[in-house]
Queue: 2 jobs
Job 1
Amino acid sequence: MSFPSSKGGFNSRSPLHVIYNKLVFMVFEKKFKTRRVTELGKKNLRVLKKDMEKYKVLAKELGSDDAVIIPAKAVKFDERVRLKCRVPMCHLYGSSPNCPPNTPDVETMKKTMKKYRWALLVKYDVPCMDDFVDKEKWLKGHEKHQRKIHDIISALESIAFNDGYYFAVGFSAGGCKTALCSGMVCQFLDSGRCRFPLKSRPSMEGVGIDAYDLAAKAGWEIYPVASRYSETGSIRCAVSMGILFIN
Ligand code: SF4
């Protein structure tokens, strides 16, 4: 199974990126009409499709490089994804409520996410690959790119919620302890008050989503980044991904 990839949109590496960043900022500041809630089951399919297209356009305006609409059932939840958070031990394991073992388990996710019909898969091309690949730079370098996905997905989730999709839920990339809190002690675990209550959320991998599989199906170029044993130049790009489930 493969998903059609959308083309076009701004490239964050283009010489116009200063203007581009200003435009992105304006979209984050934009206000949208909130709709009266109607029964979800009775939502007209035409309206739903139109809204999904709107979120896809918005994802690009908010700074993503590509977004594809996919049936929610195409998303695979796999126990092995969470196992990989533990073996070998991720430096963020247990560091916040949004990282395993604190996230919903795979069985719960499989059962719950069956109820959703559509999803928007979002990709951000990391402009400086060393921020993910370089063994010295990655620890601080990757934070801002994963924060970007947190920003995009939480904005889309809020807009969809206000459109009446009150079960809209999004998952991001990486752990919020680094992506949002820059490695500081998790305030939620410390005192019960998250610094970013609406923005912080589990990553796709933190709830068992096989993100590599989705990227491959979308036709996106993606590489595992265990750079210590990689031949120089064989990792050709780095990406950050997120997903929004609707209805
Ligand atoms: S305080 Fe920071 S690390 Fe803790 S849940 Fe909130 S965003 Fe995540």
Job 2
Amino acid sequence: MRRLLLLATLSLVALLIFVPSAWAQGQEVTVRMEDNFFDPANITVEPGTTVTWVQSGNNPHTTTSYDGLWDSGMIEGGSGGTFSFTFDEPGTYDYFCIPHESLGMIGSVTVTGGTATASPTATASPTATALADTGGPPVTSLLALAATLALVVFGVIALAVLRRRGAL
Ligand SMILES: [Cu+2]
């Protein structure tokens, strides 16, 4: 009985560890393009996060990477138009709005998971590369693992209950 409880506990712990990390993959974050600022201007996200900029103002805006990684082009005011970009590599990505950069309409996306910063040296370091390449197993396999663990937990509990009742 004690062993069964231990097994059940371990399974639950594994679930608690694996499920959130599975959900952390492929997150979505929204940044509003207001007149004339990004809201929120500076965000921090997990690798694999898709950031979607939503036109929420009356002026035309863009989201344009200083490094040339993305450029939404002009999104007309009042259109509710959107632009999305997925961030896989750790680092800090600065961007601006072409017509309103001089008004301070700038922002940044910081991707966690490494020591990499805007510095090219840090990005190219073996540590950062290894972290970026690992990525973790696909979401589906993690969820399958979690489901399997859940089944094991329920099976063990059911077995314990039946034994106690003398059914086995
Ligand atoms: Cu703008």
